[in-house]
Amino acid sequence: MPPLRDAVTLPVPRRYFLALLPLILSACAPAERAAAPHLHPTIVSLNPCTDAILAEVADPRQILALSHYSRDPASSSMDVALARRFPAVGDDIEEVLALRPDIVVAGSFVPPPTAAAYRRLGLRLEPFGIAASVAASEAQVRRIAALAGHPERGEALVGRIEAALGRAAPPPGAPPIPTLVWQSGGIVPGEGTLIAELLRRAGFANFAAARGLRQADVLPLEAVLAAPPRLILAVVSPHSEEDRALSHPALGRLASTRRARFDPA
Hints:
The chain has ten helices and nine strands. It is α/β, with parallel strands linked by helices. The radius of gyration is 20 Å and the shape is elongated. The longest helix has 18 residues, at 151-168. The strands form two sheets. The chain has a five-stranded parallel beta sheet with strand order 3-2-1-4-5, with helices on both faces. It has two domains: 31-165, Rossmann fold; 172-261, Nitrogenase molybdenum iron protein domain (Rossmann fold, 3-Layer(aba) Sandwich). Helix 8 links the parallel strand 6 (177-182) and strand 7 (204-206).
């Protein structure tokens, strides 16, 4: 795949946005910490988003395993090298049961029979939905930190998120930049999503939502070429055939559009 050309030239505060997204969407790699006291619960995470937060707020020895998704760059919400320091589990309840965790954190789409099996086997299952706002994301950080027995680490991470948001805020009166976040297969984010709020708070306008597109709608290359935004943030995978359109040579001929490759992990 040819590399995306045309580096984005933005006022310095808006450049913080590219650094801010991975922080709030998936948290950051933690510093090394002391071993966890035995009173802190052991935890298995089955979701890439909870993996990332857990790795930030828990002691390493508390984490019995992370989801196998976090070892794959295409699905990870955290640094893959960090994820590979921990054991990985799939969706097989027997794998989790063998680890005997105190708590299992997972996404909200755990099938009811599986959730019932966890309860029947005496495992505490804590489901987490998809955060649709900064406030909801910060609430999840606090909840996972509290489950791990380290609420102060949750507050520290929330503080970093808020500080990054402050740095990313545009100057008063600055016009928003129409921005297309273009994901694999041409998928775009809609309004009422975390990415939409992040765009707005960092001084960008959600180009797809302004065109009436909803969450996970598809915006084809032809439509982008016909009415291009000022900025394209392309979420691309070098191994995905679906991503070829995101770096199509025709995009490089859009004189008023800048592009940047965006890796949310």
